[in-house]
Design a protein that fits this description.
The complex is a heterodimer. Chain A is mainly beta. Chain A has helices at residues 57-60, 109-114, 131-136, and strands at 2-10, 13-18, 22-27, 41-47, 50-56, 72-78, 81-86, 89-97, 115-121, 124-129. Chain A has a five-stranded mixed β-sheet. A five-stranded mixed β-sheet of chain A has the order 3-6-7-5-4. Chain B has six domains: 2-152, Four Helix Bundle (Hemerythrin (Met), subunit A) (Up-down Bundle), CATH 1.20.120.160; 163-203; 223-402, 2-Layer Sandwich (Heat Shock Protein 90), CATH 3.30.565.10; 408-554, OB fold (Dihydrolipoamide Acetyltransferase, E2P) (Beta Barrel), CATH 2.40.50; 564-689, no CATH class; 695-790, Rossmann fold, CATH 3.40.50. Chain B contains 25 helices and 34 strands. In chain B, helix 1 (2-28) packs antiparallel against helix 2 (33-50), helix 4 (81-102) packs parallel to helix 6 and helix 7 runs antiparallel to helix 8. The chains are: A mainly beta, B alpha/beta. Chain A binds chain B through residues 30, 32-38, 41, 44-46, 48-51, 53, 79, 81, 83, 135-137, 143, and chain B through 171, 174-175, 178, 418-419, 465-467, 503-509, 511-515, 518, 520, 524-528, 538.
């Protein structure tokens, strides 16, 4: 039985999300910055009069450069709150067999946190990402 | 009141509906404690709610049932079938009464006494009576039906809706508003839509109305809940022979109706407890040295992401030791655990089922049922209960209700181009920084705002939040924190007052502690609502926050330490010495040009805004710089300026000072950060350089108001000598000074008179007159008269 996945790119790497966990894909407009919050919180935006917390996925992974210029975001709901995960690019929705392979141990810590496994797509391994990992960000304890 | 009544009815009917199943189950197994508790709470709640209204029969019934069940709970009575029947009959009767109330009928006072007797007796005979009563009820029910047609007209109609449906409507309307705004923007960009304008505007205003109405469907001012309390407290206290003053502060809080319903009962219980057990009788209070009128404060504030409803009384407090004893006796806790519990955890023992520290049970409360319901209700909505108590001086119970969705009257502000909202209930005032009455001075790293005798520590909001701006803050928003402390937040601009629908923030954003929620503006952009206490804490103003009254109970020891400390301004005097000045006496901090200062030792004066003040703090022979820093000190009546070189810091010192015998000017020596600092003796200062005695106690002196020399030359001398000059000539002055040979009638009325002459070779000492420039003799004469007049 095949499952739907959303294929996106963050920091030049391809990742997939379970499509079932995604509410929608949006084009972000003006962001309201939230000063004092961890760096990967890009700010707030609204989706049909519901506020969303915008997460910069690249910064959440601990990459040096954020997805600042990109306007694409993947909206997920977690614990009654909406989050917009801003990514470089949203590529496609693909249907694949859900055969999850273990994560290679040499992944950087940021990637380790978001990775739920690896999935083979068009002959390449792509990382299956967990939105919650992006939301938590690098310094969860410090925050 | 209609609102309250319809809610009471709806709630009672809900409970009756839910109870039906419980009753049947209880009937099968009367030993089932959980079911018994549920039924017991039903009666207790009904009885409590009756306190709002004048339903004496209903109250008597539920009270009787509660009594019986209380006995069952305590094991004093066995729940036999007779008792179960009797309770069921009472429940039926209550159900009928509620129906009657809903239809606007008067309650038929029928056979309640028998029902109650049945409950209390519970023998075979009574059981028969009870069943007869039950049949009676059927007959009774017909009456309301016959008359119901006329009653429908007056009845408030209400329906119950699932909350999800309302939420959907609400977000739909919010979306419509956004769509309208978008459309408006587009219409404005194009020409040629002139004929669309009127209908579009009409659509817009209808939409605003709808949005308002739909918001009201969920939100209700907390006032609707609070408004019934003064009456309730009054009635209760009259019944108990107590005198209680109720103080209420609603903080303009609006709350989800759903939540208002949930917290009503708990709040009523808490207030009843405070009135019944907390506050003592007038006689006891007088004996304890308290004011005979007890104080009960009920307040609602939005703090952080919750609404805090506080019930504070100044009564006897909770006897925690007895609470612990009882909890151990009831095997709720183990004796060895007691030491591990925090004071608040110990206080919360009062919420355990069956706990009550009161020895007597009254009709008002005291069965140890209230508090467990309070806690259960609050926890059900994700809220919490915090109890602080000080034996002998009062109890504070905070009901913390989480903020799910609320309309908060807010102030929107601009910092570095970004908009933020501040709950208006915190805003004391808004001050323009460069305005006349405000005065911002820098004290060390802190800023101090002086507005009308108040000194408020200030902080730039941009700095706290780490927002870059060009430091062009124009406005200060003065915030009053819980407990009364004030903090000023410097912002670029105040935009406007708005009613904002505040929604909760994601936990990761909340974690930074600066924000309590967010809201969407009309253009759809989110705006963050500031957590002012969080910001005050982040800005290092926590000391002020901790001093706040409400925190005192919580931090007993700190309170003792804080109470004896007084805030002082630390400065360096012109003589180079470090000195502390009590903040209470500082009116403002200002600068004066040296040309405005006249040096004359103790009689030095400074001119500020056309008024002359004595100035102190200038050492003898000191060469003044071009401008001089000075404090304006006040004792509440007079003002004295005190010159200083530079401001160092704000500190707090112990109120009791080490005496300093070496100096007249200092009240003593205080230790600030380990170094001794002189504390300026304001009393000494005012007695030396101020005009000494209050104006109305000074001896009066009459001067001829038409004589320019007397007014311009003589008057300052006379005033400096401690006289109050009276030109009117109406009153009888202590002294009259008359010139040459003028025959002033007032000289006859005056107790004393001095005659001056203007010729150097005048009549000399013949008539006792003094040459007008013989300063020495003139002063001597003035002093002599003053001594006599003052005595």
């Amino acid at each position: 039985m095949s499952t739907l996945f959303l294929l996106a790119s963050v920091g030049g790497h391809r990742i997939v999300f379970h499509a079932a966990s995604i509410q929608s894909v949006v084009e972000l407009e003006k962001l309201t910055p939230a000063p004092g919050t961890p760096p990967h919180i890009a700010g707030l935006a609204a989706l049909r009069s519901r506020p969303m917390t915008v997460i910069d996925c690249a910064l959440s992974l601990g990459l040096d450069e954020g997805c600042g210029a990109s306007r694409k975001a993947v909206v997920v709901e977690q614990g009654a709150y909406l989050y917009a995960l801003s990514v470089d690019r949203v590529d496609d929705v693909i249907s694949m067999e859900e055969e999850i392979e273990p994560i290679p141990s040499e992944l950087a810590p940021g990637w380790q946190r978001v990775a739920r496994g690896m999935i083979r797509h068009e002959g390449k391994m792509v990382l299956l990402a967990d939105p919650a990992g992006f939301i938590d960000g690098p310094q969860r304890k410090a925050a | 009141m209609d609102d309250l009544l319809s809610e009471f009815i709806a709630e009672a009917q809900d409970m009756l509906g839910a109870l039906a199943g419980e009753i049947v189950a209880w009937e099968k197994d009367p030993g089932d404690r959980a079911r018994l508790d549920t039924i017991f709470r039903f009666f207790h709640t009904i009885k409590g709610n009756c306190g709002f209204f004048d339903f004496t029969e209903l109250e008597a019934l539920s009270h009787a049932a509660e009594d019986v069940l209380s006995d069952v709970r305590a094991g004093r009575r066995h729940p036999d079938s007779a008792l179960v029947d009797a309770v069921l009959a009472v429940i039926d009767r209550i159900s009928d009464m509620i129906t009657a109330i809903e239809n606007g009928e008067t309650l038929a006072d029928k056979n309640d006494a028998q029902l109650i007797a049945a409950l209390q007796g519970c023998g075979e005979d009574e059981t028969i009576v009870v069943s007869e009563e039950a049949e009676d009820e059927v007959v009774l029910e017909d009456e309301p039906r016959k008359r119901s047609s006329s009653a429908t007209a007056r009845r408030r109609r209400s329906i119950r809706l699932p909350v999800e449906l309302l939420d959907r409507i609400m977000s739909g309307v919010s979306d419509m508003v956004l769509a309208r705004n978008d459309l408006a923007r587009r219409i404005n960009q194009h020409d040629g839509f002139a004929d669309l304008e009127a209908p579009f505007n009409r659509l817009g205003s209808i939409l605003d109305d709808v949005r308002d109405a739909i918001s009201r469907t969920r939100m209700q001012p907390i006032d609707t809940l609070f408004s019934a309390f003064p009456r309730m407290v009054r009635d209760l206290s009259a019944e108990l022979g107590k005198q209680i003053m109720v103080e209420m502060e609603n903080g303009d809080v609006e709350l989800d109706r759903e939540l208002i319903e949930v917290i009503r009962d708990p709040l009523v219980h808490v207030i009843r407890n405070a009135v019944d057990h907390g506050i003592e009788t007038p006689a006891d209070r007088i004996e304890l040295g308290k004011h005979e009128i007890g104080l009960l404060k009920i307040s609602a504030r939005q703090t952080g992401n919750e609404i805090r409803i506080g019930v504070i009384d100044d009564g006897r407090g909770i006897n925690t030791d007895r609470l612990i004893e009882k909890a151990i006796a009831m095997k709720l806790i183990k004796p060895e655990d007691v030491d591990k519990m925090s004071p608040r955890e110990r206080n919360l023992l009062i919420c355990a089922p069956g706990m009550s520290t009161s020895k007597e049970v009254t009709s008002v409360s005291g069965r140890g049922v209230g508090m467990d319901v309070v806690r259960a209700n609050l926890e059900q909505i994700g809220g919490s209960l915090v109890i602080d108590t000080t034996p002998g001086s009062g109890t504070r119970i905070m009901l913390n209700v989480p903020l799910t969705l609320s309309i908060v009257p807010s102030l929107t502000i601009d910092v570095g181009g970004q908009k933020f909202a501040i709950p208006r209930s915190y805003v004391e005032e808004v001050v323009r920084i460069d305005s006349e009455e405000a005065d911002l001075s820098h004290v060390g790293s802190a800023k101090l705002l002086s507005v009308r005798d108040k000194h408020i520590p200030c902080v730039a909001l941009a700095g706290v939040l780490g927002i870059e701006n060009d430091h062009s803050e124009q406005m200060l928003v003065v915030i009053r924190l819980v407990g009364g402390d004030q903090v000023g937040l410097a912002v670029d601009q105040v935009i406007e007052h708005e009613e904002l629908v505040v929604k909760p923030l994601a936990p990761i954003v909340m974690a930074c502690g600066f924000f309590v929620g967010n809201t969407l503006m009309d253009d759809g952009s989110p705006v963050l609502m500031l957590d002012v206490s969080g910001i005050a804490r982040a800005a290092g103003m926590i000391r002020e926050v901790e001093r706040s009254q409400l925190m005192r109970v919580e931090e007993e020891e700190r309170k003792e330490a804080e109470k004896r400390r007084v805030p002082v301004l630390l400065l360096r005097g012109l003589d180079g010495e470090k000195r502390a000045v009590n903040m209470q006496s500082v009116l403002r901090v200002e600068r004066a040009a040296s040309s405005a200062i006249r040096k004359a030792g103790l009689h030095s004066k400074v001119v500020v805004d056309d008024a002359i003040y004595p100035i102190a703090g200038i050492p003898v022979g000191y060469e003044l710089p071009k401008t001089v820093n000075m404090l304006r000190l006040t004792d509440g009546v007079e003002q004295v300026a005190y010159a200083f070189a530079e401001m160092i810091d704000i500190a707090s010192i112990e109120a009791e000072l080490a005496p300093d015998k070496g100096s007249d000017e200092n009240a003593g020596i205080a230790l600030i950060e380990g170094a001794p600092v002189e504390v300026l003796d304001c009393h000494q200062l005012f007695s030396q350089v101020g005009s000494g005695m209050p104006r109305d106690l000074r001896p009066t002196c009459h001067l001829d108001s038409d004589d320019r020399w007397a007014q311009e030359f003589l008057r300052p001398l006379v005033e400096a000598a401690g006289y109050c000059v009276d030109d009117t000539g109406n009153a009888d002055p202590d002294l009259a000074i008359i010139m040459d040979d003028s025959e002033a009638e007032v000289a006859q009325r005056a107790s004393h008179s001095i005659r001056l002459h203007s010729k150097t070779n005048g009549p000399a000492k013949m008539d006792g007159s003094i040459y007008r420039y013989d300063r020495e003799r003139l002063l001597e004469a003035l002093q002599a008269v003053k001594k006599v007049a003052g005595a």
